[in-house]
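Input sequence (122 aa), recorded before submission:
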Amino acid sequence: QVQLVESGGGLVQSGGSLRLSCAASGFTLEDYANGWFRQAPGKEREGVSCISRDDSSVYYADSVKGRFTISRDNAKNTLYLQMNSLKPEDTAVYYCAADPEERRCLPSFASWGQGTQVTVSS
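Predicted structure, token format:
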């Protein structure tokens, strides 16, 4: 059974940092394309960062380039999103996702976590 569990969200002041984790079970994370997505109130879910199965391709949304870093610890079967220089507009529920096929960083991935709230105060 494919399962993804996010953690690490919370309340942080503008300019602060958070690291999100996504623990996978029931499958091997590195055999899948992985991604982080977010959804703010009243907005559509959007791709924040995605990484291909062999790490050869990494995507970042323009809004987070230079501030966020996606990484994967294969030994722990865990995906991370390091978020620095956070801004109030980064406030959203963040989801990790995985798909056995290589995909563009769009919210069409097959498997999803339950999400973790990130709130950035000004």
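Checked by second reader. The longest strand covers residues 18-25.
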